[in-house]
């Protein structure tokens, strides 16, 4: 039994050794934690010029180390800056417009007859006065000859009546004829004069009808598709006509102006100013043509609260086509010597718009400003900013009043130097661990 009890007596020493070893490890861990806590709570304050220091307003609450600001400071934020510049900016009005032809004409014959020939091609550019078609002129030539003959006959009768009247008047002075005969002959002369005048009008009408057998273009433009073929009987009562001509140069663009902008536009027009206009494509990236403001309607549409307006474009390159949708940019005015900053420099808070202004000591300050007109990438500052001041454009979300910042490519102060306080921190850390 003694031999069986020996293993039981030898099992207790190993368990006691493990307990002692665990206690030593626990004490060492507590000592390490105590040294780390002393290190974090006994660091000196960051110098005013070092990265992460607070601005002239002093250390603020919320940093490590409590409200007194005696703990570690956040490092300086790298930001992007831009300089307030002076520029002339246009005040524009943008709207969606529809291209409309300055004139559209349906070419119809003015006399009835057989279409003898067509002298244009579909889609051809034609000029005013150009002959487009020919109607059979033979019947109108005959009518003109008849009217001319009638006029000549009546003119001969009139001439004879005038000679007779002169003879009667001579006989009347000799008291050889009755006055009634003279008066009757004078009335016949007047009657024949009226007949000749009517004959001349009929002859002129016959000449016009003969001229109308040549169908000419009333305006310059592009002729559309032909709707009548040779050999058909055409007339002035035809609704479709022979073709449609659309004037493309110049051309108009109709768009709508909001009622709030109407007084400004009307004032500029009344002052005699020329308002430049641009016609842009659907994506607003390409300029199709440039023109000027032409006219504005005389009443506001109660359903949309807008007024119809029109701008005219030369369209010399034929880039605008009737019924095409375009974007219109109307320049109302130009602001001279405006102070401009990038759009991303302007921020909005509870008290209004503001910017972060970079000071000489590489700290920032909050500056309330008032915004004015804006372009695609820049905005005007009317109050609160001077020409040449630098504003923060990137990284402003991490800033506050007096925050220290660094510019891209700048070397932070005290980085990597022998005089940095890192060595002192390590020495105090060792002393704290020894005391623990």
Automatic annotation (TrEMBL):
One of its GO terms (cellular component) is efflux pump complex. Residues 104-246 form the Multidrug resistance protein MdtA-like barrel-sandwich hybrid domain. Keywords: Cell inner membrane, Cell membrane, Membrane, Transmembrane, Transmembrane helix, Transport. The chain crosses the membrane at residues 20-40. Residues 250-333 form the Multidrug resistance protein MdtA-like beta-barrel domain. It holds the Pfam family RND-MFP_C. Gene3D superfamilies: 2.40.30.170, 2.40.420.20, 2.40.50.100, Helix hairpin bin. Residues 408-421 have a biased composition (Low complexity). Residues 144-213 form the Multidrug resistance protein MdtA-like alpha-helical hairpin domain. Its main location: membrane. It comes from the Bacteria. It is found in: Cell membrane. Belongs to the membrane fusion protein (MFP) (TC 8.A.1) family. This is Efflux RND transporter periplasmic adaptor subunit. The lineage of its organism: Bacteria, Pseudomonadati, Pseudomonadota, Betaproteobacteria, Burkholderiales.
């Amino acid at each position: 039994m003694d031999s069986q009890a020996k293993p039981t007596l030898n099992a207790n020493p190993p368990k006691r050794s493990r307990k002692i070893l665990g206690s030593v490890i626990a004490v060492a861990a507590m000592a390490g934690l105590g040294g780390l806590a002393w290190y974090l709570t006994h660091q000196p304050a960051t110098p005013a010029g070092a990265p992460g220091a607070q601005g002239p307003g002093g250390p603020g609450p919320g940093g490590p180390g409590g409200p007194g600001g005696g703990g570690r400071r956040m490092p300086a934020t790298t930001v992007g800056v831009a300089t307030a510049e002076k520029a002339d900016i246009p005040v524009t009005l943008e709207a969606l417009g529809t291209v409309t032809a300055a004139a559209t004409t349906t070419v119809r014959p003015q006399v009835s007859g057989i279409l003898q020939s067509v002298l244009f091609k579909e889609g051809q550019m034609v000029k005013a006065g150009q002959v487009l078609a020919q109607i059979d002129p033979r019947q109108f030539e005959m009518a003109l000859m008849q009217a001319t003959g009638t006029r000549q006959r009546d003119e001969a009768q009139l001439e004879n009546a005038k000679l007779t009247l002169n003879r009667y008047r001579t006989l009347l002075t000799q008291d050889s004829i009755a006055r009634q005969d003279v008066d009757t002959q004078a009335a016949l002369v007047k009657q024949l004069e009226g007949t000749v005048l009517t004959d001349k009008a009929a002859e002129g009408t016959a000449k016009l009808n003969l001229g109308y057998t040549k169908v000419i273009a009333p305006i310059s433009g592009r002729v559309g598709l032909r709707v009548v073929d040779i050999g058909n009987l055409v007339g002035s009562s035809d609704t479709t006509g022979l073709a449609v001509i659309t004037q493309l140069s110049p051309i108009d663009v109709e768009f709508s102006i909001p009622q709030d902008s109407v007084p400004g536009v009307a004032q500029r027009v009344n002052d005699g100013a020329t308002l430049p206009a641009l016609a842009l494509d659907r994506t607003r990236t390409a300029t199709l043509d440039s023109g000027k403001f032409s006219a504005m309607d005389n009443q506001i549409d109660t359903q949309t609260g807008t007024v119809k307006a029109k701008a005219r474009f030369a369209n010399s390159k034929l880039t605008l086509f009737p019924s095409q949708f375009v974007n219109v940019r109307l320049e109302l005015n130009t602001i001279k010597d405006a102070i401009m900053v990038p759009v991303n420099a302007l921020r909005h808070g509870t008290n209004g718009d503001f910017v972060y202004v970079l000071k000489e000591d590489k700290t920032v300050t909050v500056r309330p400003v008032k915004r004015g007109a804006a372009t695609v990438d820049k905005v005007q500052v009317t109050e609160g900013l001077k020409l040449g001041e630098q504003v923060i454009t990137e990284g402003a979300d991490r800033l506050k009043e007096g925050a220290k910042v660094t510019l891209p490519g700048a070397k932070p102060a005290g980085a990597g130097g022998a005089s940095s306080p890192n060595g002192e921190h390590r020495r105090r850390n060792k002393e704290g661990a020894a005391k623990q």
